[in-house]
Design brief:
It is a single chain. Helix content is 33%, strand content 23%. The chain contains ten helices and 15 strands. A seven-stranded parallel sheet has the order 6-5-4-9-12-14-15, with helices on both faces. The chain has a three-stranded antiparallel sheet with strand order 1-3-2. Strands 10-11-13 form a three-stranded antiparallel sheet, with helices on one face. It is globular and about 60 Å long.
């Protein structure tokens, strides 16, 4: 987290600075303590009372930007809580970029490509914006990707409507599911929060329903993972990994975690990052 000036500052200034930042990835050290902080630390940093800090944290939690735990606050995901999009945009960037570069090899001019609302698929969208693969139809419910690709030459952009969810910066709900079900695309790229025991998991049911519809609307499904998602579970089962034609994961995945994919006969490819090498278990 950034250093704060003594004297407290305004509530908005404190809340902006108090939001835990994402750890920058395994290749660079993090000074943000992994996206968590205690209320006592924040009170000392801003030179205000614990009561004032708790009011600030209550407001951040109300906005869906953090979740509180006893004595502190975190932006890290849990089995029932997904991090907000601002946190996810900063996390594991090198790993997501490596997987996205590999995913581009699966896209050919003339294809209809569907992208879910994950920051992993956003890395694909960044690379499609160069116009190197055109013509192309891109379908997505992710506002970040729509904004990125709007106006790009050679790309026919289709927005999936629905109820706007600011936590995910995407459109979800029944109307989004119905819009997906009316389409048939060549390939769909999705990501999720957790993978273990031959299944993909996600914390939120309304997100799961849209992702499942996307899987049913594509001739080929590809799951994008950074290695931090392996060996974890969340509240809802999204789909068995057999539902995907291919899983792409960065080379930070340990041998132990890759063995779990092997044991469940999951087709996967390991994507090299700039630094390479296995990650921690």
């Amino acid at each position: 987290m950034p250093a704060a000036n003594r004297g407290g500052g305004s509530p908005d200034e404190r809340r902006s600075a108090a939001r835990p930042r994402a750890p920058p990835g395994r290749h660079r050290p993090s000074s943000a303590r992994g996206g968590s902080a205690t209320a006592a630390e924040l009170a000392e940093r801003f030179d205000v009372s614990l009561m004032t800090i708790h009011r600030d944290l209550d407001e951040l939690e109300r906005q869906g930007l953090v979740r509180k735990f006893r004595g502190g606050v975190t932006a890290q995901p849990s089995g029932v809580f997904e991090s907000n999009v601002a946190y996810r945009l900063k996390a594991m960037r090198a790993e997501k970029a490596a997987v996205a570069e590999h995913a581009l090899k699966l896209i050919e001019p003339g294809m209809a490509v569907m992208l879910d609302d994950s920051t992993s698929t956003l890395e694909i969208a960044r690379r499609l914006g160069s116009g190197s693969i055109a013509p192309l139809t891109v379908v997505t419910n992710f506002l970040e990707a729509l904004t990125l690709l709007a106006g790009e030459r050679g790309i026919h952009l289709m927005a999936l409507g629905g109820d706007y969810d600011p936590l995910h910066s995407s459109f979800l709900g029944v109307s989004c599911v119905e819009a997906v079900q009316l389409l048939r695309v060549d390939i769909c790229f999705t990501s999720t929060s957790a993978v273990s025991g031959g299944f993909a998991y996600h914390q939120e049911q309304h997100v799961v329903s849209v992702k499942r519809a996307m899987l049913g609307s594509a001739a080929k499904n590809v799951l994008l993972l950074d290695h931090s998602k392996l060996g974890r579970v969340a509240l809802h089962r999204l789909a068995p990994l057999s539902r995907f034609d291919l899983v792409l994961v960065d080379d930070g995945a340990s041998d132990r975690l890759l063995r779990d994919l092997d044991e469940h006969e999951v087709p996967y490819e390991v994507c090299p990052t700039a630094a390479g090498g296995p990650g921690d278990d």
